[in-house]
Design goal:
Length: about 425
């Protein structure tokens, strides 16, 4: 891809497809429902398709009503011996507690960057709950796919878990315990990215008032199943919406539709940052849209510990600020599709961004004039997205290889609505 500022529209109106995080949580919940469930405004990215294929492997029926609507029905009629998670660590981490509430063993595999990731943290979180992990190729310093897991989580009433490195297994455990008719409590000694677990609880409660939660404790009171047809419109993806809104501060007008100002999605917190910086924006609740426009603002300080996917938007915001910005929590970026603490900062600097690494946990970003260059995406969709959005601020051409990796989380359709 070759891209530059001259391709960017000066007035943008764009409808964002549904959040991958929200869609995957709904899809996994449907494993425990026999009734028909319809999900609208679906983003059929690679990770969502991987989740859909996993549902099929359990015997669920998936019908595509149109391009962005799916209907899930049927019941579990088989238990897969092996589960393929594509490139989605979210799916893998959430699915293990779910699968091991249904059966005693499972083999897990994936593709591309997922095969290079270290899952020692997942093993350390779930082993105390009674699961046993065995790698196909054991190594002392890393735990990679493919691996097998043995044990069942369905016999316990109270769970104690240390989620200091990842919260996704806690979300999977919440889903597995919410629909089994046995009250239980999940208590976390530490809980990183807590807002994503709260998001899971909010979505579960759309199917009945099942979970009460406070900080790091979740009290689960399953309800008697009511076999009702359910129909959900999935709110747009706030991690992408945040990037577009940050870019919108450099053009005449920018309207992003299918977003709400009081979203449960953690990346919606960028609006609170806008408020702190006195950045002007309009909220149209009726049309589910956020509108902003070109304006100046000061730099900021932001801790990404609970919202690591917001970093590309924060970098765009920092580049166009009138004073330096400080981003902390950078160590949360290391064990992703790449070591994003390195790949995101390298990409930013190669395109003219002024970024100082204060320490392993802190960046200082100065106002920057973005210029052209050639960028390698490392097959990481967040790196590719950052390069694309920086390219749309460069007078010179930015060339990005392997940019199609954004399909992991997003339909490329959104790009057509940004470009002339």
């Amino acid at each position: 891809m070759k891209i530059s500022k001259k391709l960017l529209k000066n007035n943008i109106a764009i409808s964002i497809l549904g959040s991958k995080s929200v869609i995957i949580r709904h899809l996994l919940i449907t494993l425990f429902h026999n009734n028909e469930i319809i999900l609208r405004n679906i983003q059929l990215c690679d990770d969502v398709m991987a989740a859909i294929n996993i549902l099929k492997s359990f015997g669920k029926t998936i019908n595509f009503n149109n391009e962005n609507t799916i209907k899930i029905s049927g019941q579990i009629n088989q238990l897969p011996k092996e589960i393929y998670c594509g490139e989605s660590a979210t799916l893998l981490r959430m699915l293990i507690p779910i699968n091991h509430s249904l059966q005693n063993k499972g083999r897990y595999t994936g593709d591309k960057t997922l095969l290079n990731r270290d899952f020692r943290d997942l093993k350390e979180m779930l082993t105390p709950l009674g699961l046993q992990f065995t790698s196909d190729k054991p190594q002392s310093d890393i735990f990679k796919l493919p691996f097998s897991v043995f044990g069942n989580l369905s016999s316990q009433d109270n769970y104690y878990i240390n989620a200091d490195k990842s919260s996704q297994a806690v979300s999977g455990l919440l889903i597995s315990r919410s629909f089994n008719n046995v009250p239980s409590t999940i208590s976390c000694s530490s809980l990183v990215s807590a807002p994503y677990v709260y998001l899971t609880a909010d979505i579960i409660n759309m199917y009945g008032e099942i979970i009460e939660f406070n900080d790091k404790t979740f009290i689960i009171t399953p309800q008697k199943p009511i076999e009702l047809h359910r129909d959900f419109f999935i709110e747009g993806d706030w991690s992408l919406g945040a990037m577009i809104l940050a870019l919108g501060l450099t053009i005449d007008n920018c309207e992003v539709k299918n977003l709400t100002a009081h979203s449960s999605q953690p990346d919606g917190k960028i609006l609170k940052l806008f408020d702190n910086l006195l950045i002007s924006y309009q909220v149209n609740e009726k049309n589910m849209s956020i509108i902003t426009h070109k304006q100046s603002y000061l730099g900021y300080t932001y801790d990404i510990t609970d919202t690591p996917d917001l970093v590309p938007a924060l970098m765009i915001l920092a580049a166009n600020a009138n004073s330096p910005s400080r981003i902390t929590g950078i160590n949360r970026l290391t064990n992703k599709e790449t070591n994003r603490a390195s790949t995101l900062s390298d990409t930013f600097i190669k395109l003219g961004g002024k970024l100082e690494v204060i320490n392993e946990n802190t960046w200082l970003i100065y106002p920057s004039q973005i210029h052209g260059g050639k960028i390698h995406s490392y097959d990481d969709h967040r790196v590719a997205l950052l390069a694309i959005f920086l390219g749309l601020q460069s007078k010179e051409v930015v060339e990005i290889d392997d940019w199609e990796c954004i399909n992991k989380s997003y339909s490329v359709q959104f790009l057509k609505n940004l470009l002339k």
